[in-house]
Amino acid sequence: MAVTGVLRPGYIQLRVLDMGKALTHYVDCLGLSKVSEEADGRVYLKAWDEFDRHSVILKEAASPGFDVMGFKVASDADLDAFAKRLTDHGLTVDDVASGEQPGVGRRIGFMLPSGHRIELFVDMDMAAEHPPLVNPDVYPNGKMPHGMKAIRFDHALLYGPNIDDVTKIFTECLDFRLAEHVELDDNAGDMAVWLTCGMKAHDIAFVLHEEPGKFHHAAFFLESWNDIGNAADIISCNDISLDIGPTRHGITRGQTIYFFDPSGNRNEVFAGGYTYYPDNPTRKWTMDQIGKGIFYYDRKLNDAFLSVLT
Amino acid sequence: MDGSNQTHPSAPISLLAAIRQGAGPRHRVRVLGGGDVLCGEGERLLIAIERTGGGGVLVGCRRGGCGVCRIQVLEGTYETDPMSVQHVPEEERAEGYALACCVRPTSDLVVVPAFKKPPRRARWENTGEISPQTNEVKAEVKQ
After folding, report:
1. Mutation target among B46, B59, B63, B101 for the A interface, most CBs of A within 10 A
2. Would the CB atoms of B64 and A263 count as touching at under 8 Å?
3. pLDDT 10s digits, A253-278
């Protein structure tokens, strides 16, 4: 089956306390490239293997955290159809004009009952520096990736209430599939869900949490387990605040390391993870095994993973 | 014969004590309910607490964002790095509230942990006002 409708994550916008320090982190250490800085202060970044103009947007603010995540959709007709399905579901859908983000066409946006804004868009300009298209070398213009060598912005994990409703919105209105979940005891719904719109184990994930709109992490894909070690070296060399890792997840099977940007927003770089085919059944974890599900080697959950958020 | 049995004259009696002592000029920080920590000149308080295994204050992002290391400084002077206004609003900064990861003591301090739990059972209401210019969502948490 081809990937249709919602294709993949497109961008994430994060608030940072100090733009200068944030750029040192995201560009020099993580390995993204700066695309542009606009008059309103937003700074646009991209990873080396992405074709679209940008995938990470930073905005200076007095409190760090999550503003919005945008998904790319196959066609204008799909965008209109999704707007109708979301509206029919009872959500308020708003329009954002073409050009509000440089190089991006019209978008629609809505607020999840977890307190997070999600947007959908169809068109984004191709990046000036994109992966080569003819007799393609591995790296664009012979330029070696730098820092942690982030390949792409891959997914986000968000914390908030009403996770079962969120799953319904993604699966019933946007045709995502539930790849994996942690079920609460006594049929009380889900503690956590991993949702996919394509063939990755997850494109967005949610954990049940009382406070709405919270941000756990933005994840960037690396090529190999060796690159996770390289990232760990960069984390120590640059006095980046380490959360946990290198380790592996039972859930999604990704090999991973977690750390914090200079404003306390959590980042993940990871490699591996299974391929999710659209006919795959949903995998389930029970609460008594959640430690192994989250951290497969330590087999116990640490407090910080559940409580340290922006 | 090879000297391996001799104790080096400057070897510390206790490695743990040496780590707790730190190096260079230090400020003594009394964490009420946690004990005393020696914080190096220019060192961030939370890092000193982590380094010395001092208790009482939780360790989170270490970068002023998550708020779990929130304290109130009762005595002494200090400088601060940028920290989230969600966890330490401007008016509370005058009362000595700060995130330990952003506090650089300039004198001996007395501090007390002051972790602020998020509102329990908060009801989320989206006011529907969205600024397309910044994507800032105006929303409120109602008790």
Report:
1. B63
2. yes
3. 999 999 999 999 999 999 999 999 99
